[in-house]
Request: fold
Amino acid sequence: QVQLVESGGGLVQPGGSLRLSCVASGSISSIYMMGWYRQVPGKQRELVATITNSGTKKYTYLVAGRFTISRDIAKNAVYLQMNSLKPEDTAVYYCWSGASNEEGTYDVWGQGTQVTVSS
Reply:
């Protein structure tokens, strides 16, 4: 199994920046993709960005051009650099990993980290 631990959330003013980090442990070789989702109370969890093992990235249009996802394979880590933050970016951000085993693919989630954008 894979475990994920996030860090880097906090309070930031509109227009500011934050960098989220997520480190994976356990069955690292089973990971084929990592990414970030976010959720606000009363709404479904939504995809923010993903990155494959080969480096292919995907973003929701809501953050394209402001957020950058990156990955350090050697450190088993994925990062989300968030610039030009807006109040509507306020949410709990979850690190996600897609992994596989002999039974198929499965999702792994981190514990979540709060990001609050407010003046």
Remarks:
- The chain has a mean pLDDT of 95.
